[in-house]
Amino acid sequence: MTRLDAIVRRFPLIPRPRPRCGPIEERIAVARKLADDATMSAPHEGLASAAQAQNLCALIASDCGLPDLARALCRQHHNAYLDARPLTARQARLALEPLVNLARIHIRAGDGLAAHALLTDLWRALNDFAPLTIDATTLSLSGLTANSADLNDVRTWLWTVLIADGPRALINAGQWQQAREHVERHRGIGHTLLDGRQIAVVAALLTHGPAAALPLIDQTQPAHSWEKAVHACLTVLCHSVASGDTTAHAATMRRRYLHLPVEPGTQLFHARLGLTVIDLLGGPQEERAIPVLTHLLEEIRHAADGYAAKEVLTGFGSDVLPSHTRQELTRIVHSSGLHQAGVPSHLKAELLHAANTGEQALRRILKLTPGGRAG
């Protein structure tokens, strides 16, 4: 992998909140509490808790190297909604989330093309009611909602998923130009630095060079501090490819990263952004990159987030970080379960209990709200 490949694989950089990847025992306890809350809550609140519990259980299974279990939990979760159709827009969105998660499991396994095909088929199934085949099982989304207004709400939500996860699947397969064509086809390139414009910039850089990418950056209208930080990274990236001289922009890039607040749930975004800044400054051994590395490591220690710690360990060679720092990050990763190919039997039993409790609560709630009247 070239230096350029290592940098662009982190794009698009978007601070979408995600649950903290703490110790696996804590994560399973959270899933169990969500499932238990769902059994005791009113339907409106219980619906969200039941869905969150099952999604979290599938995510934990995937994190711990159990993709088959993760997929089974996703299918179990989705199936719970099938007999309750027609659904409200909210219920229908929750029903499709496990299918989107199946695509994300493909991405984690390095099969971006399978993920993209699943997302595309899901979009077609929702819009044209075409049959949807997943793991040799054929599904139909016909009659998913009671009325066209709810269906349009679900389509709007799935469009945002398609704009974010569809290109990410193609990028996973190394197909940047196809990723750009995907966002163009779905009208996903705006003036701010969301997925579409970042993908357009990187695709232009890789395909046609900096002269094609820089105008796309200059035409961007970054609205938030994180966008300005990413904007600076893309600017330095293009100039480094064009001439290698990034002096005029590197200081701005570093300052914007160091002053960027870490919002809850965005630790992985900050880790990837920090690694990108360090790479664009010449690597962690460069004097001007040391404050960035120090800041990055402090944030990871404070958050103790397994995803972020693993990203840094993967991003640097074994000889870059001091041994005590590498050991500390490794401990965070190990405690979260990310290093495992499975989980201890007692934890797996707790995980399955949480998933099954969430499913039972979900089915009960859906029976209390037949025909999509509530929730």
UniProtKB/TrEMBL annotation:
This is Uncharacterized protein. It comes from Spongiactinospora rosea.
